[in-house]
Design goal:
Elements: E1 2-5, E2 9-12, E3 18-20, E4 33-38, E5 45-49, E6 56-60, H1 75-81, E7 89-96, E8 105-115, E9 121-123, E10 135-136, H2 137-146, H3 153-159, E11 160-163, E12 168-171
Length: 173
């Protein structure tokens, strides 16, 4: 499938990269069709609207910098996207990369949850006070390394598949 993107112009993507968000994202409820694919800088991904090329978010697997991350998802939300068991879910967070020297942050309070089988997703709001809308990715990654918490390779390999064209991992959703 050929799509128009905000950062890369026209691009051919595999239909497996398409995801449907029936409720859209918070603040972008009218946009429900997206594609997720590698950004130029790993480990980030683009989350490109297929309905408006100017709407594109940068995503990251939260477990890469917060191995202790927990997304307590309400059954109602899981039903909307057809998740019956945890293995079906891929979880991503939206990243903010500022134009100045401020920290690169991730929104751990409003993760995106995607059913890897149905390619349906939703954005949820977590009420756990540990998760905020701005977490400094580099500082928290360094802190998790010092504390001895490393992301499990097993967990990551369950979530991604190898894209031979780019020789890096694509999200498995």
């Amino acid at each position: 499938m050929r799509i128009n993107t905000k950062f890369l112009g026209e691009l051919d993507i595999d239909d497996q990269r398409k995801v449907f968000f029936p409720r859209g994202l918070f603040g972008f409820e009218d946009y429900t069709e997206f594609a997720i694919f590698n950004a130029e800088q790993p480990p980030f991904y683009y989350f490109q609207s297929l309905e408006n090329k100017d709407i594109c978010f940068i995503l990251l697997d939260p477990f890469l910098f917060r191995p202790d991350y927990e997304a307590d998802i309400a059954q109602e939300e899981m039903n909307v996207i057809g998740i019956q068991k945890p293995e079906q879910a891929a979880v991503f967070v939206i990243v903010t990369i500022p134009n100045n020297d401020s920290a690169i942050t991730a929104n751990l309070q409003g993760p995106l949850v995607i059913n890897k089988e149905t390619k349906r997703g939703c954005q949820i709001v977590l009420t756990d006070p540990r998760w905020k809308t701005k977490h400094d990715i580099l500082a928290e990654r360094a802190e998790s390394r010092m504390g001895g918490q490393q992301p499990s390779d097993e967990r990551l390999s369950d979530r991604f598949e190898l894209d031979r064209r780019h020789q890096r991992k694509e999200p498995q959703c």
